[in-house]
């Protein structure tokens, strides 16, 4: 990611999106582009897992997080420790979609460099980065309307999509017919999309 930040130095911010997530861009127009956006209010996407009694994987991830936090700049440590008050748990986020404004890019790059060669999973690293940069209460809530399922439905069901939601996850397009169906239902939010089909 740091190479993307370096390549687009005039960008106001950076929106990251997994390829099986639909973004309803028309619902993002009023979002505050000076704040962080992530699905921290979407319970199945953002959760806290206790490291007590769970698999060894969670404990190892928590140990690596603690190692990174202890080497952060003081302001990042303070943010992290104010947000994560339970030392016996870690925050997990699938990170299907998130936004980093330009003002947080330097901190993000620093945090990526602190992780370095540690094998911290992205689902653990991304929420650690976010709560280190700012308090979750300061995140823009634009993604709180996201429709989220852990597993895809057997077919791309219209119950998984709403033009009023900021995003929908997961959605798979495996054929031209799937793409046309998706564009038609998205046209409820942006009628100009019908010109594509």
List the helices and strands and how they pair.
Elements: H1 2-7, E1 13-17, E2 22-23, E3 37-38, E4 46-50, H2 56-70, H3 74-83, E5 89-93, E6 97-101, H4 105-115, H5 122-133, E7 147-148, E8 167-169, H6 176-186
Parallel strand pairs: 7-8
Antiparallel strand pairs: 1-6, 2-8, 3-6, 4-5
Helix pairs in contact: 3-5, 4-5
What does this structure look like?
This protein has helices at 2-7, 56-70, 74-83, 105-115, 122-133, 176-186; strands at residues 13-17, 22-23, 37-38, 46-50, 89-93, 97-101, 147-148, 167-169. The longest helix has 15 residues, at 56-70. By secondary structure, the protein is an alpha+beta fold.
Cα end-to-end separation: 34 Å
Query: What's the overall average pLDDT, rounded?
Result: 92
Strand order of the largest sheet: 1-6-3
Shape field:
globular
Q: Which runs of at least 5 residues are low in confidence (pLDDT < 50)? A: none
Content of β-strand = 5-15%
SSE order: HEEEEHHEEHHEEH
Q: Fraction of residues in helices?
A: 25-40%
Number of helices: 6
Q: Sheet with the most strands?
A: 3 strands, antiparallel
- CA-atom Rg in angstroms: 18 Å
Number of strands: 8
Q: What is the subunit arrangement here?
A: single chain
């Amino acid at each position: 990611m740091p190479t993307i930040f370096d390549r687009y130095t005039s960008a106001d911010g950076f929106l990251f999106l997994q390829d099986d997530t639909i973004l309803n861009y028309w619902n993002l127009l009023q979002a505050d582009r000076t704040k962080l956006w992530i699905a921290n209010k979407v319970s199945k996407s953002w959760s806290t897992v206790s490291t007590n009694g769970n698999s060894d994987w969670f404990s190892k991830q928590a140990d690596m997080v603690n190692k990174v936090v202890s080497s952060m700049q003081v302001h990042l440590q303070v943010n992290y420790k104010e947000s994560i008050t339970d030392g016996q748990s870690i925050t997990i986020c699938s990170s299907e979609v998130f936004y980093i404004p330009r003002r947080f890019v330097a901190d993000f790059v620093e945090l990526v460099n602190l992780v370095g060669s540690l094998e911290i999973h992205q689902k653990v690293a991304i929420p650690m980065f976010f709560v280190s940069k700012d308090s979750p209460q300061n995140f823009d809530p634009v993604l709180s309307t996201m429709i989220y399922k852990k597993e895809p439905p057997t077919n791309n069901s219209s119950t998984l999509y709403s033009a009023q939601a900021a995003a929908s996850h997961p959605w798979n397009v495996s054929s031209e017919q799937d793409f046309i169906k998706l564009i038609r239902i998205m046209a409820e939010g942006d009628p100009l999309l019908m010109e594509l089909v």
